[in-house]
Each structure stands twice: as structure tokens, then as C-alpha cells.
Specification:
single chain, alpha/beta, CBS-domain, four-stranded mixed β-sheet, 11 strands, disordered N terminus
């Protein structure tokens, strides 16, 4: 039975805080929903399964189960690769369950070449919640690892097929390694989140905790890259995988280090802090050629233009690149609404909405626009990546007002 959570770590979930449906990621195939959270598989997962199957089929399983027919070895190796990906999914879904326990919505779970990523709508509000959510994944991996190793021991004692026992033993060991590796105290690994929670709890400074975890992540990434390079120099191709993981860990940690400064600048601010009135608005019913003529006749500030319907409601976005791509012959017969891209409903927000939540969605694909601010149903302004970058730069100067 799970203990009750202090109210300081949890926000009421009345449905109004539930994040919008995430926009599709390139190269990711939707796999369904678990606990209401979309789960996707990146195409690189196929590379993981193929590589693991090859390593098991040519090395591990023939040595552990000599005399097993090659076709059985390859089937077992492929099954082991698929099951390992399934255990990674279980690891990530443990984060989802723990996050929900603390009132944090998870936008999606994505499985790809270096593991899995649970994309949360926001960071847990307190250090305890942050640490518990982070620990949930390695805990499940450790339980799976121990259980599979125990099952392998039972199978060995009961005389099960050697290849089955080998697969169970390998899966168990792999999950224990996964648990231990993820508990290394470096962002973006789970251990880094635990470290962040500890520093946050001890100092009361969330930003300092983020910086400490990110700094250790950069160090760990460098060490992994150097270790991988050493293995490659010795002729061991596993060093390539290790170096790749190091590159991912170090790069992600560096991004988080920069992101923590952005988060500090955005904290407590609303969309009104950066929204600027669009200098030019395109009508959805215009032809693309009419819009091109208008743009030739007047200077325009924004590289991405807002498209509105007859009632003035924002319905889409269009860029000059979109018009150029059409070509002169098609611009006369194509409406502006069709030339650009529709504006996702979740990108139309009230001026008093939290800016951090809008920025967290990233720009609308193919544009620099994060969203459109509205005030009592009327367009109040655009929010672009340049607006946010300017805000972060001003924040670095200090002494800025916080609308």
C-alpha cells in the first residue's frame, strides 16, 4: 500500500491542468496508450533489437546452450531483444505511475536507441516527489532483474531447455545493469534526478540542484566517451555503443544546464510578458498570390505570419518559404489557409497563461511560433522563440520586472 503524499508535493488534478495531446515526433510510430499515456516506438528500436539479437545469437546463447539448432538460437535471441525493449517500457511506465501519484501528467513515453524517455508536462513540485518519481524506474528494473534471475535458477534446477534458461539469465542480468547504470548520480539519468532532489531538499535552491545534476552529467558523458574510445582502440566494438551513450548523456546534460537558466527566466511569468502584436495578419480566404503581393508592398516583421478566419479567430500559420515552395503558377489558385499549416488548438492560449507551459511544447513545426495569445477571445499577440530568447537575455542582466 502506497503511503499518502504530503500536499506540498501534490497539486489537485481537476482536469484543467491536463496537458494537450503532444504533437507527433518524427520517426516515432504510435504504439498505443498505457495508463492513458501515448507510447511510441522510434525506428531506432529496430536497430537495438537487431543488434542484441546478433550479439546473443553469435556469442552468448551458443556458449550457454551448445548443440541448440541455429534457427532456435536466432529465434530465442530475437525474442530476448524484443523482451528487453519491453522491460525498458516497464521501467518508463513505472515513472508514469509514480508521476501520476504526485499529480504530474506525462505527455508521452518514447522508446528509442538509448532507452526510453518519459516526457512530463512539468517537473514534480517538491524534492521528495522528484526523487520518488526518479527511483520508480530503477526499482522496477531491479525487481525484474532479480525475478528473471530467480526464474532462470528455477529453470536450471528443473531441467528446462538450456537456451530458455540462458535467455532468462541474460534478461535478468541486463535489467540489473540497467538499474545500476540509471542510478549513477548524473543528469539525465534517474540517479541524477535523485541527486537533484537531494540537493534541492538540503539547500532549498531548485536551480542550484539542477545545475549540480547537469554538471555531473557532463562529466559522466565525457568519461563514457573516453571509455568507449579506449575500448575501440583495443578493437572492441562495444566501445562504439558506450561512446554513443556518453555522447547522449553529456549532450542532454549540457542542454539541461542551459535549460535551467531558461526555466529560471520563465518562472512565474505569463504569456503577456513576451507576446507582441503581429505587424501583419493574413486572411485565410486570400489567395497565396494576394498575400505575396501584400508582402512585396510592405515590410513585415515576423518570419511566420498569423492566418485568421473571417471572424478574426487564429486558424493557421504561413511563412514566405511556404509561398515560395508553391511556385508562381499555384499561388493564384491556392488559398492562404492551404498554403501554410493549421494552428493546433493548444497553441492558442490566454494572455495570463503560464509562459513556461507554452515554451515547453516547442515551436510549431516549420515555424518559429510557440503560440498565439488571446485576450477575451481577441488576438493579443504572437509568441515566438525570438521573444523568449530576448526575455532570457534580459533576465541575465538582472532587475527585470516579472509580469
Amino acid at each position: 500500500m502506497r503511503a499518502s503524499t504530503p500536499s506540498t508535493d501534490r497539486e489537485p488534478d481537476d482536469g484543467s491542468r491536463r496537458p494537450p495531446a503532444p504533437e507527433p515526433l518524427p520517426g516515432v510510430v504510435p504504439f498505443g496508450r498505457v495508463a492513458g499515456v501515448p507510447v511510441g516506438l522510434h525506428w531506432s528500436v529496430l536497430v537495438v533489437v537487431a543488434l542484441l539479437a546478433w550479439l546473443l545469437a553469435v556469442g552468448v546463447l551458443p556458449a550457454a546452450a551448445p548443440g541448440t539448432p541455429p534457427v532456435v538460437v536466432w529465434l530465442a535471441a530475437t525474442a530476448a531483444g524484443v523482451l528487453f525493449v519491453a522491460t525498458i517500457a516497464a521501467h518508463e511506465l513505472a515513472h508514469v505511475v509514480a508521476a501520476h501519484r504526485f499529480g504530474v501528467d506525462v505527455r508521452r513515453v518514447t522508446l528509442w536507441v538509448v532507452g526510453g524517455v518519459s516526457e512530463m508536462a512539468r517537473e514534480p513540485r517538491g524534492p521528495r516527489a522528484l526523487a520518488v518519481v526518479a527511483l520508480a524506474g530503477p526499482a522496477v528494473s531491479a525487481l525484474l532483474g532479480g525475478g528473471l534471475l530467480a526464474l532462470a535458477a528455477v529453470g536450471r534446477a528443473e531441467g528446462w531447455a538450456a537456451v530458455l534458461v540462458a535467455v532468462l539469465g541474460w534478461l535478468g542480468s541486463a535489467n540489473l545493469v540497467l538499474a545500476v547504470f540509471n542510478m549513477l548520480p548524473a543528469a539525465p539519468l534517474d540517479g541524477g534526478r535523485v541527486l537533484q532532489g537531494l540537493v534541492w531538499g538540503l539547500t532549498g535552491d531548485r536551480e542550484r540542484a539542477r545545475q549540480v545534476a547537469a554538471a555531473t552529467g557532463r562529466v559522466l558523458g565525457l568519461l563514457l566517451i573516453l571509455s568507449g574510445a579506449l575500448l575501440l582502440w583495443r578493437g572492441e566494438w562495444t566501445g562504439l555503443w558506450l561512446a554513443g551513450i556518453g555522447w547522449f548523456v553529456g549532450g542532454t546534460a549540457a542542454t539541461e544546464q542551459a535549460g535551467s537558466r531558461v526555466a529560471k527566466a520563465l518562472a512565474g511569468r505569463t504569456v503577456a510578458a513576451v507576446a507582441h502584436p503581429p505587424a501583419f495578419v493574413a486572411q485565410a480566404g486570400w489567395s497565396a498570390e494576394t498575400l505575396a503581393t501584400e508582402l512585396r508592398a510592405r515590410p513585415y516583421r515576423d518570419p511566420t505570419l498569423l492566418v485568421v478566419g473571417v471572424d478574426g479567430d487564429p486558424v493557421g500559420l504561413v511563412t514566405v518559404r511556404d509561398l515560395v515552395r508553391l511556385g508562381a503558377d499555384r499561388r493564384a489558385t491556392t488559398r492562404v489557409r492551404e498554403a501554410g499549416r493549421p494552428l493546433p488548438p493548444q497553441r492558442v492560449v490566454a494572455v495570463d497563461s503560464p509562459l513556461e507551459r507554452l515554451v515547453g511544447q516547442g515551436p510549431v513545426p516549420g515555424t518559429d511560433v510557440l503560440g498565439v495569445a488571446v485576450d477575451h477571445g481577441r488576438v493579443a499577440g504572437l509568441v515566438t522563440t525570438a521573444d523568449v530568447a530576448r526575455l532570457v537575455e534580459l533576465e541575465a542582466l538582472g532587475g527585470q520586472d516579472r509580469p
